[in-house]
What we know:
Elements: E1 3-11, H1 29-41, E2 48-49, E3 58-68, H2 77-82, E4 89-97, E5 108-118, E6 131-133, H3 139-147, E7 151-154, E8 169-180, E9 200-201, E10 208-209, E11 214-215, E12 222-223, E13 235-236, E14 243-244, E15 250-251, E16 263-264, E17 272-280, H4 287-299, H5 308-314, E18 329-336, E19 343-346
Parallel strand pairs: 3-18, 5-6
Antiparallel strand pairs: 1-3, 1-4, 2-3, 5-17, 5-18, 7-8, 8-17, 9-10, 10-11, 11-12, 13-14, 15-16, 18-19
Helix pairs in contact: 3-4
Amino acid sequence: xxxRILLSxxxxxxxxxxxxxxxxxxxxxxxxxxxxxxxxxGVPVEVIGASRTDSGVHxxxxxxxFDTESRIPPEKFAHAINVRLPDQICVQTSMEVPADFHxxxxxxxKTYEYRIxxxxxxxxxxxxxxxxxxxxxxIDKMREAAAYLVGEHDFKSFCSTYTSAKTTVRxxxxxxxxxxxxxxxxxxPGSxxxxPGSxxxxPGSxxxxTGSxxxxPGSxxxxPGSxxxxPGSxxxxPGSxxxxxxSENVSDSRSDAGPGSDSVSSAARMPREIVIRVTGxxxxxxxVRIIAGTLMEVGRGAKTPDQIPDxxxxxxxxxxxxxxxxxxxxxxxxxxxxxxxxxVFDIHKTT
Length: 351
């Protein structure tokens, strides 16, 4: 007897032309799943994907279903498929669902994250999963702009002109902009590492870093908070006649591969990762990447937060910012709201 199996799938989309199988035969996530399942069951299998992510986009928990008469227990499919998949793709869980369950026709909530490595130099270890930019983005302005996007709006300005959607009205439940400083991602209980902006003390040392002061006790070099201002204000190096201001840009031969240009902001700053997290019931083609590109434009001063309502009302793709590169985007959470099928899928748990 045939049964329908639901898979939760994580993948690195770097080397794939998106999720959906294509007639041209280029590698896709769906194509690899079909091949592995056909090999496993001995009969042709075609999965139905929930989110047809674009070329180069990643996922921690995309969903797919397929029908099979195989006697393999539903929960055993994950391990059986994984041994036949390339390292870039992993089935996290497998379970039986009702025969009429369709992942694109049920009520769902999805969360995407767009990650930006914001520093003077690229980080080779992050290059596949973050977009690199030297601009010193104003996080507060990005958050202010993001608030305008929450709610039900016509997102035609934030949609590719190649869309085939019948309507461009969508409901966005949340848009958050998070700043993560390297080394501050996790604070261990009982340690002396505090949250960003408060004092960070290294146990057994006399070095203290605070949100307003950097001092090296015992040395003759002290950079008091009064002489190191926030980005965009003057930065003075004691004992020198050199000042760098936020209005003076330094450029080199490397440029941003998307929004922005080859200009960089103040030379003295701490590298950080910026995460733009968007949650909604459904998204248009390239919608999250255009939101990310527009918020980056706000962050670097090319647009202002109060322009967002005008961009929405324009219903014109040219009004919004550029489409951010695919590498920074990851589908991180999938919630099924269908009565009797309530589930939350992410990389850490399935409930």
